[in-house]
Each structure stands twice: as C-alpha cells, then as structure tokens.
Amino acid sequence: MNKPLQHRSICPLASALDLFGDKWTLLVIRDLACGKSQFKDFMQSPEKIATNILSSRLARLQALELVETFASTLQPGRQAYRLTAKGETLVPVLQALADWGLANIDGTRAMLRPVDRDKKEQKP
C-alpha cells in the first residue's frame, strides 16, 4: 500500500499543485494522453526534458497510480507507459488549460491532441 501523501493544506487545488505543479509533470501526462508510450518518444518532445527528470516523473506518476507500464509491442523486451483510468481523468483538465492558452497567450498553437483511448495499445 502506498504511503499517504503529505499535504501542505486541505485545499484541493494546493494539494493537486503539490502533485503536478512542477514544470514537467503535466507535460509528461500530455504526451501520454497524446499517445506517446516509449521513453524515446518522450525525449523527442519540443520541451527537451532531461532523461533523469523524465525517469523521475514517470516513477512518481506510477507511484501515484496515474501511469502504468506494460510490455511494449513496438519494442519487444522493453516496457512502455500509459495512463491508468485515474490518469485519464486528467485529460479534460489538460485540454482546458491548453484551450485557455490558445485563447489568451499570443503565439501559441495546438501541437498535440489527446488520442482516442480505444485506439491506444490495449492491455493484454
């Protein structure tokens, strides 16, 4: 069983920011929601996350039960990553943030869109 998380307050927004408030975590979730599953695919994102930070964020998201690993069908012998059902609940939140950015931040454009969950690699 996972150790309960320590929160700095009972505010749900503050608690969520404790989990996702760094500059990389939501981008990893974005990439997963957009169909990336291989470590090398995350490394090709335009933000250029460092390998040690990517490894750390994926491990943290696994510990939070937002991401799971599975045997890759694209690279036999390797593991791949995907959002869990709990992780998928973040997709509308990311879409709302992206929509806000498109509407309010000059020079932004939609680069990635979440993929249909039914079209992702399925669990064995």
- Number of separate strands: 2
Architecture (CATH level 2) name: Orthogonal Bundle
Work out the helix count.
Answer: 6
Shape: globular
What is the terminal-to-terminal distance? 24 Å
Features:
124 residues; Arc Repressor Mutant, subunit A; two-stranded antiparallel ribbon; 2 strands; 8% strand
Can you describe what's shown?
The protein is mainly α. It has one domain: Arc Repressor Mutant, subunit A (Orthogonal Bundle). 44% of the residues lie in helices and 8% in strands. It is built from six helices and two strands. It has helices spanning 12-20, 25-33, 39-43, 51-63, 85-88, 91-104; strands at residues 67-71, 79-83. A two-stranded antiparallel ribbon has the order 1-2. Strand 1 (67-71) and strand 2 (79-83) form a beta hairpin. The longest helix has 14 residues, at 91-104. It is globular. The model has no long low-confidence stretch (mean pLDDT 87).
Q: What's this entry about, in short?
A:
By secondary structure, this protein is mainly α. The chain contains 6 helices and 2 strands, in the order ααααββαα. The longest helix has 14 residues, at 91-104.
Task: Itemize the secondary structure elements and their pairings.
Elements: H1 12-20, H2 25-33, H3 39-43, H4 51-63, E1 67-71, E2 79-83, H5 85-88, H6 91-104
